Amino acid sequence: MSETIFTKIINKTIPADILFEDDQVLAFKDISPQAPVHFLVIPKKPIATINDIQSDDDALIGYMYRVAANICADLGVAQQGFRTVMNCNPDGGQTVYHIHLHVLAGKPLGWPPYQERLKTE
Length: 121
Description:
The protein has helices spanning 5-10, 58-75, 112-120; strands at residues 18-21, 25-29, 37-43, 82-85, 101-105. The chain has 121 residues and is of the alpha+beta class. InterPro entries: Histidine_triad_CS, Histidine_triad_HIT, HIT-like, HIT-like_sf. Residues 5-114 form the HIT domain.
């Protein structure tokens, strides 16, 4: 896999607003947030797409979600709720070929008709 912007963030050759880091993952604020809270959780192991995840990556992928939930709890948005999204390949909206979990929170993110129904109930 070729070097990506995420590899550069992992290697600290470009800056990021880091929320969490350990030997397996790195979480940092998205530079183009789509919600009041928007951060990414990335594995330090380079995996290009969801299609490239192997069975020995199962624990790592689960760990990414646990880190996301812990950060949401620390930020005070876990109980209201949050959305996690992992895009895959061009039609799925993936632009950086190093898997990354988007975590969005801080406003209602549900399906629009559902949100409208909630306002009237």
